[in-house]
Design goal:
Layout lengths: L3 E5 L3 H13 L3 E5 L2 H11 L3 E5 L1 E2 L2 E2 H10 L8 E5 L4 H10 L3 E4 L4 H30 L13 E6 L3 H11 L5 E6 L16 E5 L7 H13 L7 E5 L5 H10 L3 E3 L5 H32 L10 H18 L3 E8 L2 H8 L1 H17 L6 E4 L4 E6 L4 H16 L16 E8 L14 H17 L5 E4 L4
Parallel strand pairs: 1-2, 1-3, 3-6, 6-7, 8-9, 8-10, 10-11, 11-12, 16-17
Antiparallel strand pairs: 4-5, 13-15, 13-16, 14-15
């Protein structure tokens, strides 16, 4: 099934006709005859879209939309209305309530299905980002998204400069946004950093003289990295179901089929700006959450959660290419004494500086992670044993050759490091029967080599050779 749709209409014939159209396009259809039934069905079935009649026995579509929006479990479900000759007042009231579209009967099947695809596509995308944000929130990394923000930017795209000026003069007092005009040829060419529109309002002209240019721009906006998340509203001067459906399938977010109507255009543009603002916030919090989930907040290095899967991937690549790699565990010597004598702030300063020195002494391809209090993991792909030994010795010298400036100390504090090294991709490890050691096996072998370095006096490298 392509999605789940709830049809709300008191007239059973209307529901059946619409169900046949949607079922033939492989949608699962649920039915309700009243607003009360619709609210229960929306909670129970979590549809991807609701299609409602304008008038219902216990209210209207605007009232139903308001009820759904007040419930956190149903507020994100998109809703469209099908009506017989809706007047402008009821149409605007429905859009103000949050309805995505109002379609007048008789409905062209091609346009109906394109609108359904567009709304469900947008809903699924939003739901995916919301799910990722929920994961970040559960991990404690995300903040609540705010349904407000600075004024947005909208561009009116048309070749008719005179009409564009008239439209902008009408819209500017109503639209809380920076509004400017562009032609299809210059809309992307003239974009400057920090001036990317939140919404493209693309005007198709009478006679379809320039429709091809506008539709090519639509596809380009969706394919361009800096504009692909922008909202796109296509305005048709007259109803053309085939062209409207094509625009929706190309990636338009919204469609006006009956030309310029200032209140409707403002409502649709504001809705697209609000949707983009919230989506931008969700993407930002997810990116921040993912980064926080795999990063050590003190040193900025990767953490254990990232390091172990990375080590696994390096081992798999090594098995495929036959090239060896090095695994090191480095531990600062007598680190507890620094905390005890100078305080934890000084200990943190040592960790930050040690991380910097280690990072500067490694290749860009090498992975450095903080996996414990004062313990670091280093993974060096495509590295022979001789190079690993030289690198480990260099790291020891880098840490121990120059004192650390720390708060609470009158002079630099001497710090040293011990390093345990093992090799992957060279055969099984001593004490293991596995032909190919796992990431945890390699980490354990490097940890044991580190323990030997500590026993031998610290400030040195110990190498765990693979089994013969």
């Amino acid at each position: 099934m392509q999605g789940k749709i709830l049809i709300v209409d008191a007239i059973s014939t209307n529901r059946i006709v619409l169900k046949v159209k949607l079922a033939s396009a492989f949608y699962e259809v649920i039915q309700a005859s009243t607003a009360d039934e619709a609210c229960v069905a929306a909670l129970r079935h979590a549809p991807d879209l609701i299609i409602s009649a304008m008038a219902l026995p216990d209210g209207d579509a605007a009232g139903l939309c308001g009820r759904l929006h007040r419930n956190p479990q149903t507020r994100a479900i998109p809703m469209m209305v099908v009506a017989c000759r809706p007047n402008n007042t009821s149409r605007i009231a429905a859009l103000e309530a949050g309805v995505q579209d109002v379609m007048a009967k008789p409905i062209d099947d091609t346009l109906l299905l394109a609108r359904v695809r567009s709304l469900i596509r947008a809903h699924n995308t939003a739901a995916e980002w919301q799910m990722r944000d929920d994961t970040s929130r559960a991990l404690g990394f995300a903040e609540d998204t705010a349904d407000f923000g600075p004024p947005g930017r909208a561009v009116l795209v048309t070749t008719d400069t005179k009409a564009a000026q008239q439209w902008m003069q009408t819209l500017r007092p109503l639209l809380r946004a920076s509004l400017f005009h562009s032609t299809p040829e210059t809309a992307l060419r003239d974009l400057a950093p920090g001036r990317v529109p939140d919404v493209f309002i693309m005007i198709l002209e009478e006679g379809d003289t320039h429709s091809g240019e506008v539709l090519r721009l639509l596809a380009a906006v969706r394919a361009t990295a800096i504009t692909r998340h922008a909202g796109i509203l296509v305005v048709q001067p007259r109803t053309d179901p085939g062209l409207g459906a094509y625009a929706l399938d190309l990636g338009a977010d919204d469609l006006m089929t009956d030309g310029f109507e200032e209140n409707e255009l403002v409502l649709r543009t504001k809705a697209l700006m609000r949707r983009k603002r919230i989506a931008d916030q969700l993407r930002a919090t997810v990116r921040t959450g993912l980064k926080a989930a795999v990063s050590d907040p003190l040193t900025g290095l990767h953490n254990r959660r990232y390091a172990i899967p990375h080590l696994t991937r390096v081992a798999e690549h090594s098995a495929a290419t036959g090239r060896s790699f090095a695994v090191m565990v480095a531990d600062l010597d007598h680190f507890k004494q620094i905390n005890d004598v100078y305080g934890h702030a000084s200990g943190d300063a040592v960790l930050v500086e040690a991380a910097r020195r280690l990072r500067e002494s490694l290749r860009g391809v090498d992975m450095l992670a903080r996996i414990g209090g004062e313990e670091f993991l280093i993974v060096m792909p495509a590295t022979p044993f001789s190079e690993a030994r030289v690198t480990a010795s260099r790291l020891c010298r880098k840490i121990g050759s120059e004192g650390f400036d720390v708060p609470g100390a009158n002079e630099p504090v001497n710090v040293t490091v011990s390093i345990g090294v093992t090799m992957g991709g060279t055969g099984k490890l001593r004490g293991l029967t596995n032909e190919i050691p796992s990431a945890l096996d390699l980490l354990d072998a490097a940890d044991k080599a580190l323990y030997e370095a500590k026993l031998q006096g610290r400030n040195q490298v110990n190498l765990a050779r693979p089994a013969a």
